[in-house]
Amino acid sequence: MGKGELLFLLKGLQWTLVLSAVGFACGTFTGLGVALARTSGFRFLERIAAGYIALFQDTPLLMQLFVVYYGLALYGMKLDAWVAIAIGRASGAVNNWSRNVDGSAPPRSTANI
Prior knowledge:
Shape: elongated
Structural class: mainly alpha
Low-confidence stretches: none
Order of helices and strands: HHHH
Mean pLDDT: 76
Helix content: over 70%
Number of helices: 4
């Protein structure tokens, strides 16, 4: 492996760390907001949060990024790549925060055996 390939890999590592940090921040705030909405006691907010979770639950992150970036462009909403990544990462992280926000255990069918 030459010096050029090593620099290329290090640049990729840099972008991976930056995108992970952006995704973590967006996912934390979005997930926390959805979790609070689900437990708010306001039926309207709980239903909106449940619908949001149902829309994004168990969908692959790459598919979410493609739909956000390319799908919205079909409707005239051309997003910057960073905005699409932030939206995609936030929606993907919501599942981790809000799936069992009520404190219940995951269904036995989803347990790692």
